[in-house]
Every structure is written in C-alpha cells, then in structure tokens.
C-alpha cells in the first residue's frame, strides 16, 4: 500500500470550496479500503462521465469525490444528482489517492462504489458513516 506524499492535514490545504461533506481521516481510509476491494471485483464506476451515466440509470452505490479537483465545474453537478436520487456521497482530500485506491495509475475525481457480497461488511460500514455525514446547505 503506497503512502501518500502529503499527510491528510496537508491535503486539506488544497480542497476546493464545494468539498462538503468531507470524510474524516478515518473514514477516508475506510473508503479507500472499500474502493480497493471493489476494484478487485470490478465493482466501481470511475470518472465523471461514467459515474454520471450510471447515476442517471438509477444504479445504487456510494459516490466518492476528490476534494482537490479543479476547475470544480467538471464535477460540481454530481452531488446534486446524488441528492436528487438520495445516494450517499462524500469527498476525500486527494484525487491521486483516489485513483491509486482504484488501482489506476491516473488520478480520478469521482468514483462510485457498488455493493457486492465479497466486501459487504466494509461497504455497509462506509455506507453508514457516509450517510451520517451532514449534507451541505
């Protein structure tokens, strides 16, 4: 497991203004773990276009967005889509860590984790914590 070049605290300096609700350091780790497991079972949707397509199709899952994506116009509509369909979503500080968790060489700004029986326990735990995060007003 590769350690990020910057600590969680340092990554927070690069967040954009819409990165709410932000996952805590502990939840961020759990989400990365869940994403790694989901990636092994090909149960993730990666990238704005793909995630957007599957949200529109009504697919269920946890949407994880990178908080350091600029310009924010690329993906600022995703949280609204999630809220409209009452899908849980959260921001993590770094798009490069998000990409790495999905075992991709490239940074990615949004990932949707689909539920799967192989990692149901981790998924449910993440789902509960992400759903408990306060939504921005």
From TrEMBL:
It is found in: Nucleus, Nucleolus. Residues 30-122 form the Ribosomal protein eL8/eL30/eS12/Gadd45 domain. Its main location: nucleus. Gene3D superfamilies: 3.30.1330.30. It comes from the Eukaryota. InterPro entries: eL8/uL1-like (IPR050257), H/ACA_rnp_Nhp2-like (IPR002415), Ribosomal_eL30-like_sf (IPR029064), Ribosomal_eL8/eL30/eS12/Gad45 (IPR004038), Ribosomal_eL8/Nhp2 (IPR018492). Keywords: Nucleus, Ribonucleoprotein, Ribosome biogenesis, RNA-binding, rRNA processing. It holds the Pfam family Ribosomal_L7Ae. One of its GO terms (molecular function) is RNA binding. One of its GO terms (biological process) is mRNA splicing, via spliceosome. GO terms for cellular component: box H/ACA snoRNP complex. Belongs to the eukaryotic ribosomal protein eL8 family. Common component of the spliceosome and rRNA processing machinery. Required for ribosome biogenesis. Part of a complex which catalyzes pseudouridylation of rRNA. This involves the isomerization of uridine such that the ribose is subsequently attached to C5, instead of the normal N1. Pseudouridine ('psi') residues may serve to stabilize the conformation of rRNAs. This is H/ACA ribonucleoprotein complex subunit 2. The gene is Nhp2.
């Amino acid at each position: 497991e590769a350690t990020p070049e910057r600590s969680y605290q340092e990554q927070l300096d690069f967040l954009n203004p819409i990165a709410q609700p932000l996952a805590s350091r502990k939840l961020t780790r759990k989400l990365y773990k869940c994403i790694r497991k989901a990636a092994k079972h090909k149960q993730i949707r990666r990238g704005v276009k793909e995630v957007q397509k599957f949200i529109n199709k009504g697919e269920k899952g946890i949407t994880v967005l990178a908080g350091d994506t600029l310009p924010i116009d690329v993906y600022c509509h995703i949280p609204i889509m999630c809220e409209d369909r009452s899908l849980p979503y959260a921001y993590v500080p770094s798009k490069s860590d998000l990409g790495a968790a999905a075992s991709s060489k490239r940074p990615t700004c949004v990932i949707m984790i689909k539920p799967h029986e192989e990692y149901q326990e981790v998924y449910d735990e993440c789902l509960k914590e992400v759903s408990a995060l306060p939504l921005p007003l």
